[in-house]
Amino acid sequence: MKRLLLLALLLPLGAFASPPVVVFGEKEFYALDSPTAAGPRDAAQQAFFAGYRADWGRQAPYEASLALVSPPAWGKTVGPATKGEIDYRKSFPGGFVFRLALESLLPNHEYILTLNGNPARAGNALLRSAVPGNPQERYYDFLIVRTDAKGGYEADLGVALKPGDYDVRCYVKDTADFKIVLYRDFFKFAVR
After folding, report:
1. What total of structural domains would you count in the chain?
2. Which pTM value belongs to this model?
3. Using an 8 Å Cβ cutoff, are 171 and 183 in contact?
Protein backbone atom coordinates (compact mmCIF):
# COMPACT_ATOMS: atom_id res chain seq x y z
CA MET A 1 0.00 0.00 0.00
CA LYS A 2 2.82 2.44 0.87
CA ARG A 3 4.37 1.76 -2.57
CA LEU A 4 1.06 2.70 -4.24
CA LEU A 5 0.96 5.93 -2.25
CA LEU A 6 4.54 6.74 -3.28
CA LEU A 7 3.72 6.15 -6.94
CA ALA A 8 0.62 8.30 -6.65
CA LEU A 9 2.61 11.19 -5.20
CA LEU A 10 5.30 11.00 -7.86
CA LEU A 11 2.82 11.06 -10.74
CA PRO A 12 1.96 14.49 -12.10
CA LEU A 13 -1.29 16.07 -11.04
CA GLY A 14 -2.68 15.76 -14.55
CA ALA A 15 -2.63 11.94 -14.31
CA PHE A 16 -5.54 12.02 -11.84
CA ALA A 17 -6.85 14.23 -9.05
CA SER A 18 -3.98 14.39 -6.60
CA PRO A 19 -4.62 15.27 -2.96
CA PRO A 20 -2.60 17.63 -0.80
CA VAL A 21 0.50 16.06 0.74
CA VAL A 22 1.72 16.26 4.34
CA VAL A 23 5.51 15.78 4.56
CA PHE A 24 7.41 14.64 7.67
CA GLY A 25 10.57 13.61 5.85
CA GLU A 26 11.72 12.78 2.36
CA LYS A 27 10.46 9.20 2.81
CA GLU A 28 7.59 9.86 5.22
CA PHE A 29 4.62 11.67 3.71
CA TYR A 30 0.88 11.21 3.51
CA ALA A 31 -1.74 12.14 0.96
CA LEU A 32 -4.75 13.55 2.82
CA ASP A 33 -7.27 11.28 1.10
CA SER A 34 -5.21 8.07 0.99
CA PRO A 35 -6.09 4.92 2.96
CA THR A 36 -3.18 5.80 5.27
CA ALA A 37 -4.63 9.29 5.81
CA ALA A 38 -4.88 8.60 9.52
CA GLY A 39 -1.37 10.01 9.42
CA PRO A 40 1.63 9.48 11.66
CA ARG A 41 1.71 8.04 15.18
CA ASP A 42 3.86 10.71 16.86
CA ALA A 43 1.66 13.17 18.82
CA ALA A 44 3.35 16.34 17.49
CA GLN A 45 3.14 15.03 13.92
CA GLN A 46 -0.52 14.09 14.44
CA ALA A 47 -1.26 17.65 15.59
CA PHE A 48 0.36 19.12 12.46
CA PHE A 49 -1.41 16.59 10.23
CA ALA A 50 -4.81 17.40 11.74
CA GLY A 51 -4.17 21.16 11.67
CA TYR A 52 -3.10 21.08 8.03
CA ARG A 53 -6.08 18.90 7.06
CA ALA A 54 -8.47 21.37 8.75
CA ASP A 55 -6.73 24.39 7.18
CA TRP A 56 -6.81 22.86 3.71
CA GLY A 57 -10.48 21.93 4.16
CA ARG A 58 -11.36 25.60 4.78
CA GLN A 59 -9.79 26.57 1.43
CA ALA A 60 -8.86 29.99 2.82
CA PRO A 61 -6.61 32.07 0.54
CA TYR A 62 -2.91 32.03 1.26
CA GLU A 63 -1.44 35.14 2.87
CA ALA A 64 1.67 35.65 0.77
CA SER A 65 3.01 34.79 -2.67
CA LEU A 66 6.44 34.74 -4.25
CA ALA A 67 7.93 33.81 -7.59
CA LEU A 68 10.50 31.10 -8.22
CA VAL A 69 12.92 32.07 -10.99
CA SER A 70 15.76 30.49 -12.92
CA PRO A 71 18.99 30.79 -10.96
CA PRO A 72 21.98 32.88 -11.96
CA ALA A 73 25.13 31.25 -13.37
CA TRP A 74 25.55 28.89 -10.37
CA GLY A 75 22.39 26.98 -11.30
CA LYS A 76 21.04 25.40 -14.47
CA THR A 77 18.58 26.95 -16.90
CA VAL A 78 15.97 24.54 -18.26
CA GLY A 79 14.28 26.97 -20.63
CA PRO A 80 13.22 30.59 -21.06
CA ALA A 81 9.63 29.98 -19.91
CA THR A 82 10.56 28.02 -16.77
CA LYS A 83 8.98 29.54 -13.67
CA GLY A 84 7.28 28.73 -10.42
CA GLU A 85 5.22 30.25 -7.65
CA ILE A 86 4.70 29.60 -3.97
CA ASP A 87 1.61 30.83 -2.14
CA TYR A 88 2.00 30.30 1.60
CA ARG A 89 0.91 30.86 5.18
CA LYS A 90 3.17 33.34 6.97
CA SER A 91 2.77 31.37 10.19
CA PHE A 92 1.38 27.93 10.95
CA PRO A 93 1.52 25.54 13.93
CA GLY A 94 3.99 22.71 13.32
CA GLY A 95 5.16 23.42 9.80
CA PHE A 96 5.27 25.33 6.53
CA VAL A 97 1.99 25.28 4.54
CA PHE A 98 1.98 26.32 0.90
CA ARG A 99 0.82 25.77 -2.67
CA LEU A 100 3.52 25.13 -5.26
CA ALA A 101 3.11 25.64 -9.02
CA LEU A 102 5.93 24.85 -11.46
CA GLU A 103 5.84 25.45 -15.23
CA SER A 104 7.96 24.55 -18.27
CA LEU A 105 10.43 22.23 -16.59
CA LEU A 106 11.50 18.98 -18.27
CA PRO A 107 8.44 16.82 -18.93
CA ASN A 108 7.89 13.65 -16.89
CA HIS A 109 11.00 14.39 -14.83
CA GLU A 110 11.77 14.23 -11.12
CA TYR A 111 12.82 17.26 -9.08
CA ILE A 112 13.61 17.58 -5.39
CA LEU A 113 12.18 20.40 -3.30
CA THR A 114 14.57 22.00 -0.81
CA LEU A 115 14.64 24.64 1.91
CA ASN A 116 18.15 26.08 2.30
CA GLY A 117 19.39 28.24 5.15
CA ASN A 118 22.29 30.55 5.91
CA PRO A 119 24.17 30.66 9.25
CA ALA A 120 23.51 34.41 9.55
CA ARG A 121 19.73 34.04 9.12
CA ALA A 122 16.83 32.69 11.16
CA GLY A 123 15.94 29.02 10.89
CA ASN A 124 19.28 27.76 9.58
CA ALA A 125 19.93 25.66 12.70
CA LEU A 126 16.40 24.20 12.49
CA LEU A 127 17.00 22.54 9.08
CA ARG A 128 18.00 18.85 9.02
CA SER A 129 21.25 18.50 7.07
CA ALA A 130 24.59 20.29 6.79
CA VAL A 131 25.69 21.47 3.33
CA PRO A 132 28.67 19.33 2.24
CA GLY A 133 31.84 21.39 2.56
CA ASN A 134 30.03 24.08 4.58
CA PRO A 135 28.76 22.49 7.82
CA GLN A 136 27.46 25.79 9.24
CA GLU A 137 24.92 26.13 6.42
CA ARG A 138 21.98 23.75 6.60
CA TYR A 139 19.27 22.52 4.23
CA TYR A 140 16.30 20.18 4.03
CA ASP A 141 15.50 18.12 0.90
CA PHE A 142 11.89 17.39 1.76
CA LEU A 143 10.13 15.84 -1.26
CA ILE A 144 10.73 14.48 -4.76
CA VAL A 145 8.01 15.47 -7.26
CA ARG A 146 7.43 14.46 -10.88
CA THR A 147 6.35 16.90 -13.59
CA ASP A 148 3.57 16.14 -16.08
CA ALA A 149 3.94 15.79 -19.87
CA LYS A 150 4.13 19.59 -20.21
CA GLY A 151 6.76 20.02 -17.49
CA GLY A 152 4.33 21.29 -14.87
CA TYR A 153 3.57 20.37 -11.29
CA GLU A 154 1.04 21.83 -8.87
CA ALA A 155 0.18 20.77 -5.34
CA ASP A 156 -0.77 21.93 -1.86
CA LEU A 157 1.89 20.87 0.62
CA GLY A 158 2.34 20.92 4.37
CA VAL A 159 5.93 20.32 5.54
CA ALA A 160 6.45 19.60 9.24
CA LEU A 161 9.30 21.70 10.65
CA LYS A 162 10.75 22.54 14.06
CA PRO A 163 9.14 25.59 15.71
CA GLY A 164 10.84 28.92 15.15
CA ASP A 165 11.32 31.79 12.73
CA TYR A 166 12.65 30.96 9.26
CA ASP A 167 14.42 33.14 6.71
CA VAL A 168 15.41 30.62 4.04
CA ARG A 169 15.75 30.01 0.32
CA CYS A 170 13.59 27.62 -1.68
CA TYR A 171 15.22 25.45 -4.36
CA VAL A 172 13.86 23.13 -7.03
CA LYS A 173 16.74 20.79 -7.93
CA ASP A 174 17.09 18.36 -10.81
CA THR A 175 17.46 14.84 -9.38
CA ALA A 176 19.74 13.87 -12.30
CA ASP A 177 22.56 16.21 -11.23
CA PHE A 178 21.23 18.10 -8.16
CA LYS A 179 21.64 21.45 -9.92
CA ILE A 180 19.15 24.16 -9.01
CA VAL A 181 16.68 24.93 -11.80
CA LEU A 182 14.36 27.30 -9.90
CA TYR A 183 14.92 29.24 -6.71
CA ARG A 184 13.72 31.98 -4.44
CA ASP A 185 16.20 33.91 -2.39
CA PHE A 186 15.45 34.46 1.27
CA PHE A 187 11.86 34.74 2.46
CA LYS A 188 10.37 34.62 5.95
CA PHE A 189 7.76 32.49 7.65
CA ALA A 190 7.21 31.19 11.19
CA VAL A 191 6.43 27.76 12.61
CA ARG A 192 4.59 28.07 15.92
Report:
1. 1
2. 0.88
3. yes
